[in-house]
Amino acid sequence: xxxxxxxxxxxxxxxxxxxxxxxxxxxxxxxxxxxxxxxxxxxxxxxxxxxxxxxxxxxxxxxxxxxx
Length: 68
Fold this sequence. Notes:
Elements lengths: L10 E6 L8 E6 L5 E4 L2 H17 L10
């Protein structure tokens, strides 16, 4: 990737509740690879997305497994 290449990552976001009163559950699916990440709350999803932005900006390889 050269300096003029855009930094781009695309996800399909799904949000749902198992039942009334529970926290929202969240999943992200990478569009390019179909890899899925599952989260027990929206805050964990945002934390993951923020960490991915740091990874993409730094040029380091993305993690191979979900830590969330």
